[in-house]
Amino acid sequence: MKKILIIGGNGFIGRNLARNFLSHNDEVYSFDIQKPEELIEGVHYLTGDFFDDTTLEEVIDGMDVIIHALSTINPGNSNVRYMQGYSRDFVQTVRLIELCIEKEIKMVFLSSGGTVYGIHDKQPIEENDFTAPINHYGTVKLCIENVIRTFNTQQHTKMLIARISNPFGPGQDFRKGVGFVDAVLKKSIDGETIEIWGDGSVVRDYIYIDDVCEMIYTLINYSGPEDVFNISSNEGVSLNQILEYVHEIGLNPNVVYKKSRAVDVPQVVLDNERIMSVHPIKVLSFKEGLQKYCDYLLKNYQK
């Protein structure tokens, strides 16, 4: 049994990771600024300020694995709040890395496969392809990645980087700035208008949250030579295709198209061969995941 700490445990990915890790019979700790309104039975909740050095050191002491899932910015607001990303998220994560090395704790950093690569003609994108983010969110993530790789090289540590594509599923809240699939389904159910920035041709690699969690758990137990993994479905879907699929499952989305945003990369599909070589569990197709999430919302969603 491992003691696993999820930093940023109140978030969409963090809460789903906690549930998943419990199913593997590990001892799960969730760390965030406060306890969530809905507690998960079996999870140990720790509260405090990630940006306080003393608190951070106390919280991680005695852990076997740390999943770093905390970010105070997102792709949509990072071009305005970029200094917060660099001066707080980046700097304090470097401190966390130092502490993990000092205490010999394994760390998996959750990066952003949808933003660190930037614009590529070649699809799907492999882990060794060039990285050139076009927004500050992706650049902050890449800065952290580079620090991790430097320490891995200099001190022969084995901290891992998980470049997650576009997860969706139970627990997501598009109102926090991320989650097109979540927005389309909930707004279709509520009869609200869906805003699309651009002509709807933007392509992303969407992956169901359960598959993300299982892949991250695989990395917890990984001890091979690689340190960067795309966490993805290897399937590209455009925004317009999503609307078509939503129609097919019986909902009627009402859409308005607006001017495209400079922060959005036209196409990102991530090659998942590396993670699938050590995680031989089939992932859901986009249509399968969409239907599963729609069924969940129709039973459980309350505006």
Distance between the termini: 38 Å
Summarize the biggest pleated sheet: 7 strands, parallel
What is the number of strand segments?
12
Report strand %: 15-25%
How many domain modules?
Answer: 2
Poorly predicted tracts of residues: none
How many helix segments?
Answer: 9
Structural class: alpha/beta
Q: How much is the radius of gyration in Å? A: 19 Å
Strand order of the largest sheet: 3-2-1-4-5-6-10
Helix content: 25-40%
The shape is: globular
- Helix and strand sequence: EHEEHEHEHEEHEEHEEHEHH
Description:
The chain is of the alpha/beta class. The protein folds into two domains: 3-168 and 206-232 and 271-283, Rossmann fold (3-Layer(aba) Sandwich); 174-202 and 236-269 and 288-300, UDP-galactose 4-epimerase, domain 1 (Alpha-Beta Complex), CATH 3.90.25. It is built from nine helices and twelve strands. It has helices spanning 12-23, 53-60, 82-103, 136-155, 180-190, 209-220, 239-248, 273-276, 286-300, and strands spanning 3-7, 27-32, 44-47, 65-68, 106-112, 160-164, 166-168, 193-197, 203-208, 228-231, 236-238, 254-258. A seven-stranded parallel beta sheet has the order 3-2-1-4-5-6-10, sandwiched between helices. β1 (3-7), α1 (12-23) and β2 (27-32) form a beta-alpha-beta unit. α5 packs across α7. The relative contact order is 0.14. The mean pLDDT is 95.
